[in-house]
Amino acid sequence: VQKIHLTSLSTSISIMAFADSCSRPAGASKGSEAPEGTRKYLLGGNWKANGTVASVEQICSDFIDAGPIPANAEVVIGVPFIHIPICLQSMRSDIEIAAQNCSLTGTGAYTGEVCASQLKDLGVTWVILGHSERREGFGMAGEDSELVAKKTKMALSEGLKVMLCIGEKKEEREAGTTMDVCAEQLKPAAEILSKEDWANVSIAYEPVWAIGTGLTATPEMAQETHANIRQWMSDNVGADVASAVRIQYGGSMKGANAEGLLSQPDIDGGLIGGASLKLDFFTCINAVPSP
After folding, report:
1. Whether 69 contacts 94, CB under 8 Å
2. pLDDT, tens digit, 9 for 90 and up, residues 75-116
3. In this structure, are residues 83 and 111 in contact, taking their beta carbons and an 8 Å threshold?
4. Whose C-alpha in 76, 114, 219, 262 is 20 to 30 A from the C-alpha of 252?
5. What phi and psi values does residue 217 have, to the nearest 5 degrees?
6. Strand-pair partners of 129
7. What is the DSSP string of 129-145?
């Protein structure tokens, strides 16, 4: 009994020691908070499978000196699993840390999986789910919308927030079926998530043809799809949820086009890939309109 007690105590001390060691560098804010009843911008980064220990430490250092973040913006970066501890210790404190995936399961005999409760325990606050690259698969079966919805429900149940990715391929855009595709991807989530769940979900609209290609939907094209997604949410989940949910744009947003995209009424932020690995991420952040 005494051994069990000591082991438990040791584990508790170990967890506390890690938490205590994460005294992250302070951030800085500028401008005014988003007015009550309006949507706060959400600028998400997605590092994908990029970075080394040295390069991640350099990015964290660069971002510390990148200046204040607008008070009406929330900033989150999705980093590879192996770099989460570094970022939780070295990233400025006003940038939240997200995982890029989590499992459908809880803890147990699931070799190679990382579950939502483990991420939450580590200090992660967000997770990216349903990204087109995971839906497509890379040498393995892709994830379908039903699986993505179930993983979203699991993540929410463990206290994580979710960036839920949807979007069409080039041929689907050309065929005029963009909203059919987006609706099909949203429908399983709408069926199993409560209205309360949606308070902790953002929708990241990512036209697949614009991810990493250098192609970008015009602000007007993106706004039209975002408005259609919001209308779908109103019709299928509720007008209150539709009005409150944040819809990010994720098709090659960068400093050069962020201002035009973020000026649109239904574009509430971005999910930014390559630019989030560079100081250009802060150009995107600083493109957030003032309240």
Report:
1. yes
2. 999 999 999 999 999 999 999 999 999 999 999 999 999 999
3. no
4. 114
5. -60, 140
6. 164
7. ES-HHHHH-SSSPPPPH
Sign of CA dihedral 164, 122, 143, 76: positive
Using a cut of 0.85, tell me whether the model's pTM lies above it.
yes
Helical segments of the chain, H only: 2-21, 53-64, 84-90, 116-122, 132-136, 145-157, 170-174, 178-192, 219-236, 239-244, 255-262, 280-285
Which tokens is 27 given? 């951030």
How far apart, in whole angstroms, are the C-alpha atoms of residue 104 and residue 136? 18
How many CB atoms sit inside 10 A of residue 212's CB? Answer: 12
Annotated active-site residue in 74, 83, 96, 131: 131
Catalytic residue among 83, 133, 206, 226: 206
> What count of Cα atoms within 13 Å lies in the side-chain half-sphere of residue 139?
0
CB 284 within 8 A of CB 270: yes
